[in-house]
Inverse folding.
């Protein structure tokens, strides 16, 4: 059972200092330790285990099969390959989150290729790769497809850089593929031909999600694929698939747990309507539903038969009106998670409050984020209504155009268990619309009442007071997002000095400068990353930080128009890999 | 077909109008100081610790427009704000029917007014929204529609010129048919308006 003898340089304590105390022999043999450790899955637990003593470190690294790397630049492929010899599953995350909102120039980095080259060499038995916010080229996908004969599971979330050429390689070569999951792809043009490249005898797919890819696929090939993959449990098609085509797919796969429909707008004959209605009714196991592009009151009722067991309803692509939305909700008593567009308005959210007592997560997205049509969307009243009816609510993402302190205070009193509170008042720096006060009181209430809070996004007119409260009360906070808020360095300092579990801090357009940046010197090594854009930080401050903290990468992204001394976009993160070797010319590592 | 329904109250058509004269006051210019660098906008406001000044600036953003190059409603846009993912943003903003991004602008004349206005019929999901918008734009009341008597309860009646050049009463045909045949709107006033309604009673 014991593999090759452990080489001495594996041990972390075998460094230059020879006066490292010799550790007493382990009470149990390596085989036992390894067996025990093989039951530990969580990478956080494994990290703790590896720090106990040298032999635990070694046992851990030999038994770890799943790797989680939250920032691809915090470590290098070489370091990973040296430490972990037997990896089967890898999760890699790349760009900072603000890249989702076009705040990072193209070609910033996070290209997966150099990782894949290493993996191909060291982990021939790799089965699973989950990438988030990384650039993945066709060349990389081809390398992936050809290097790992047992490869099973590919998940690309918010990735870019590939076309259907890369997907064709995956479909053609990955004989054992069980999962192909593409979410929120930002690729301009991915043709649909890849779907037809799965071999005729290929039947192992369990998860297929191509909802975010725009091009039409061959329906015939899709239908054949679905009918032969008897273990298919997740199917999310794109908008090109029509309602009657969906009906045929459902007839082949009534066992689905998760379904993403195609377009829901089509003129159906009465016969077709009946057929699709009965197809949905036969989906007895459906738990998650999404897609529903252009759904309206005419065709939503065909869904009703499949809604009894639904736990997650994602209507973020289907802007509904309050009436049709309320009718749909009446059929979904078991909802735990709900994503909607604000076209449902406060009235729709009242229906949520009354129909969904088990609700734990609510996300409300704006139909009109740039306020072109001056729609009302949702207000504090809708949020209040949900909080009154859904006492188990612990995750909220809420885009609105007006909010009051009083409402938020009441909301958190109704739902004190928030772990994720992301409130986006869409006009920057907007005060309480009734009293004209800053929204400090609201967020003070959030951090005081919700002791389990892990993630917070603040918005509206906020003074340093908000940050004083966050620093003082948010003891479990791990992620904080700040925009257009605060008065002075003091605000950011409070957060850096106060929140012991802070891991990710992202700030934009706020008046925090060098003093604030430097007050977090010690803290940044315990965090994953810091992002500051359009604040008052200068190159001088960044250089100072870089000099004082050599184990941090301090990167400044230069804009063409920007002033040489201002540091418009700063990205700071801990790394054992040293400065980036692939930084483009506009990224300065200090 | 519109994906997004309008709310009942003020639609603020100023945002979509084409004016003859100079644009109105733009406090907005102060907030989004330079057209090319909108990013710096709000630190000025955030630094202002008293809420009131900030709020009046903010409120002015809601209702005033500043001329800006390539944004259809004239409002300056901040990069990456609100924080909506590009993928999601693209899906919701596209007009699903034939991908037409342009509006369906028709001229609106009112008897006795010195100049015409223009509205985008695509912004409305039905007659009631359109009529409310006209009432707001011209500061008048249009009254209740009935098939039998046209518009009762006010001295105004909304009419339109159709593809054949005929003057028709607004509201007689289904909305979609109206949208495709309406070439021009005319708000009739006084005796002529009553005559139009009365002719069918």
């Amino acid at each position: 059972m014991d593999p090759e003898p452990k080489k001495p340089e594996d041990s972390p304590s075998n460094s230059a200092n020879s006066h490292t105390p010799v550790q007493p022999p382990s009470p149990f043999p390596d085989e036992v330790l390894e067996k025990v450790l093989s039951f530990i899955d969580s990478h956080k637990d494994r990290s703790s285990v590896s720090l106990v003593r040298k032999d635990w470190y070694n046992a851990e690294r030999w038994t770890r099969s799943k790797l989680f790397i939250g920032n691809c630049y915090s470590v290098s492929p070489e370091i990973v390959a040296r430490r972990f010899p037997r990896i089967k599953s890898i999760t890699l995350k790349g760009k900072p989150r603000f890249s989702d909102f076009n705040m990072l120039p193209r070609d910033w980095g996070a290209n997966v290729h150099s990782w894949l080259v290493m993996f191909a060499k060291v982990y021939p038995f790799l089965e699973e790769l989950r990438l988030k916010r990384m650039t993945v080229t066709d060349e990389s996908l081809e390398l992936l497809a050809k290097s790992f004969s047992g490869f099973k599971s590919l998940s690309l979330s918010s990735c870019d850089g590939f076309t259907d050429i890369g997907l064709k390689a995956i479909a053609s070569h990955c004989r054992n593929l069980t999962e192909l999951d593409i979410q929120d792809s930002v690729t301009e043009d991915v043709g649909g031909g890849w779907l037809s490249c799965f071999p005729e005898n290929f039947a192992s797919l369990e998860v297929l999600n191509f909802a975010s890819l725009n091009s039409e696929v061959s329906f015939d090939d899709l239908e054949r694929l679905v009918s032969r993959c008897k273990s298919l449990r997740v199917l999310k098609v794109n908008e090109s698939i029509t309602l009657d085509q969906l009906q045929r797919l459902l007839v082949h796969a009534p066992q689905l747990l998760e379904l993403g429909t195609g377009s829901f707008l089509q003129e159906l004959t009465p016969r077709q309507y009946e057929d699709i209605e009965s197809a949905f009714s036969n989906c007895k196991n459906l738990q998650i539903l999404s897609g529903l592009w252009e759904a309206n009151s005419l065709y939503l009722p065909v869904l009703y038969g499949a809604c009894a067991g639904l736990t997650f309803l994602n209507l973020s692509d289907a802007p509904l009106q309050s009436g049709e939305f309320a009718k749909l909700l009446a059929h979904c008593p078991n909802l735990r998670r709900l994503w909607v567009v604000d076209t449902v308005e406060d009235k729709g959210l009242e229906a949520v409050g009354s129909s969904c007592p088990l609700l734990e997560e609510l996300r409300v997205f704006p139909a009109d984020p740039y306020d072109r049509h001056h729609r009302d969307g949702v207000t504090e009243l809708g949020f209040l209504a949900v909080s009154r009816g859904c006492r188990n609510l612990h995750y909220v993402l809420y885009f609105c155009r007006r909010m009051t302190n009083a409402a938020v205070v009441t909301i958190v009193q109704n739902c004190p268990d928030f772990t994720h509170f992301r409130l986006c008042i869409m006009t920057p720096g907007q005060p309480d619309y009734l009293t004209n006060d800053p929204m400090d009181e609201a967020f003070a209430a959030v951090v005081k009442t919700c002791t389990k809070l892990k993630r917070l996004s603040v918005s509206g007119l906020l003074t340093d007071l908000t940050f004083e409260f966050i620093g003082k009360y948010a003891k479990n906070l791990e992620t904080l997002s700040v925009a257009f808020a605060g008065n002075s360095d003091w605000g950011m300092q409070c957060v850096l000095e106060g929140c012991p579990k802070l891991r990710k801090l992202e700030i934009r357009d706020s008046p925090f400068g060098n003093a604030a940046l430097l007050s977090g010197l010690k803290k940044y090594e315990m965090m994953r990353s810091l992002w500051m854009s359009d604040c008052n930080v200068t190159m001088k401050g960044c250089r100072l930080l870089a000099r004082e903290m050599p184990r941090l990468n301090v990167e400044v992204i230069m804009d063409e128009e920007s002033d040489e001394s201002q540091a418009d976009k700063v990205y700071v993160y801990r790394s054992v890999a040293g400065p980036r070797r692939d930084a483009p010319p506009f990224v300065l590592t200090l | 077909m519109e994906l997004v329904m309008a709310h009942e109250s003020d639609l603020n058509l100023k945002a979509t109008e084409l004016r003859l004269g100079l644009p109105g006051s733009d406090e907005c210019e102060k907030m989004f100081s330079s057209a090319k660098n909108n990013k710096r906008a709000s630190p000025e406001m955030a630094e202002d610790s008293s809420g009131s000044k900030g709020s009046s600036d903010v409120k002015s953003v809601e209702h005033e427009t500043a001329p800006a190059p390539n944004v259809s409603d004239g409002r300056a846009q901040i990069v990456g704000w609100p924080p909506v993912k590009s993928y999601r943003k693209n899906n919701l903003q596209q007009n699903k029917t034939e991908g037409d991004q342009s509006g369906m602008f028709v001229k609106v004349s009112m008897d006795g007014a010195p100049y015409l206005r223009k509205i985008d019929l695509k912004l409305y999901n039905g007659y009631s929204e359109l009529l409310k918008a006209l009432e707001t734009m011209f500061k008048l009341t249009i009254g209740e529609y009935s098939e039998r008597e046209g518009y009762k309860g006010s001295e105004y009646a909304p009419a339109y010129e159709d593809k054949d050049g005929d003057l028709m009463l607004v509201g007689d045909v289904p909305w979609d048919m109206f949208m495709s045949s309406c070439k021009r709107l005319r708000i009739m006033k006084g005796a002529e308006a009553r005559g139009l309604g009365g002719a069918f009673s």
